[in-house]
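Title: Comparing notes on inverse folding

I've been comparing how different people in this forum approach sequence design from structure. To keep things fair, I'm posting one structure and asking everyone to reply with a full sequence. Here's the target:
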């Protein structure tokens, strides 16, 4: 029985560590998949910003597409479970104005699929 205790303790510590790692309290690598939509051929640049609830910029990434954007953009971001604000800025060919989309992200799993459109379907959100 004495030889069994150290093994049980080690097994319990490993199980507890795995539970802590998977419960979302620690920062983990998450994959965000941004669905661009059918009008992606005119997109030349996409800037994606991820902000936390304290208004701290956590990630800013700019993608350039000289020949038009793909139908989706995959982005790896280190985030813990929680709520975040995503701001996306889109520049199109032959347009001077920049489209802005704002979306709340609720992170609770490893991969999220998101749309570049506001819930109303057009450019939206507040600065």
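Reply #1:
Here's my take.
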């Amino acid at each position: 029985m004495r030889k069994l205790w150290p093994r049980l303790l080690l097994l319990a510590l490993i199980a507890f560590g795995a539970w802590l790692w998977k419960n979302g309290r620690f920062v983990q690598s998450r994959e965000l998949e941004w669905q661009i939509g059918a009008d992606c051929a005119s997109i030349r640049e996409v800037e994606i910003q991820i902000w936390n609830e304290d208004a701290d910029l956590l990630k800013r990434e700019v993608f350039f597409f000289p020949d038009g954007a793909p139908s989706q953009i995959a982005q790896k971001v280190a985030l813990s479970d929680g709520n975040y604000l995503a701001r996306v800025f889109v520049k199109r060919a032959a347009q001077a104005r920049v489209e802005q989309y704002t979306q709340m992200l609720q992170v609770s799993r490893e991969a999220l699929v998101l749309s570049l459109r506001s819930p109303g379907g057009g450019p939206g959100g507040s600065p």
